[in-house]
Amino acid sequence: MTLPLIILNYKRHIIETRLAKFYSIMNQALLRSVEEHGDIPFKTFETNDNSEYLIKWYDEYIIKYISTIEKKELNPTYIKYIFNDGSGFGSALLANSNTLTIFYLINPSKDISFDGINGFAFVYNPETKQVETFWQHSSYKMKKSLCYNPKQRNSCSALIQANGWKIPKDYPWVK
Questions:
Q1: Cα–Cα distance between 136 and 125 in angstroms, integer?
Q2: What digits encode the pLDDT tens for the residues 106-164?
């Protein structure tokens, strides 16, 4: 094996392991929160200025069940949390939407995005009280088509999940 191949395999392993762990941690936190509170109220906004609500929501219903070392309000729309392992997640609740988008970040010092390398999109489903991968309920073919499109990488987390939390061999973004 060559050194570049070893490095590539290591990067892939880190992403795969951390994505599966994040998914599990968030859903375990939600399960514990539902057990304690019975319900997790969630509201929508008419503007994007909602990070104060998100911080309170996360503090009340999620963060007390997981270990983070840092919380940042990036602007009135986005917040970011950093885990003990150096990874983290950002979150936004956009106007007139009941979709809480959660960006899992391998390296939270980078911008919040869902680029399929550092950032992976998840959503909170208020009906099921679960975190799901973006496009989780679409076909494998659709997930792959969206993920492999440079402008539509929001299904990469769903593609990796559908592949048993393994990055497909022909995955274009981790090189």
A1: 11
A2: 988 877 778 999 999 999 888 888 999 988 899 999 999 999 999 889 899 999 999 99
Q: Which residues make Cβ contacts (< 8 Å) with residue 161, sequence separation at least 6?
A: 19, 20, 23, 133, 136
Q: Tell me the pTM.
A: 0.90
* Residue 174 covered by a domain: no
**Cα dihedral 21/81/13/11 (nearest 10):** 180
Boundaries of domain holding 76: 3-162
Residue 167 lies in a domain: no
DSSP H or E stretch at residue 146? helix 140-147
In a domain, 169, yes or no: no
Residue 29 has φ and ψ, to the nearest 5°, of: -65, -45
Looking at the structure of the chain, the number of domains it has is 1
> What is 95-138 written as a DSSP string?
TT---EEEEEESSTTSPP---SSSEEEEEEETTTTEEEETTTTS
First to last CA, the chain: 16
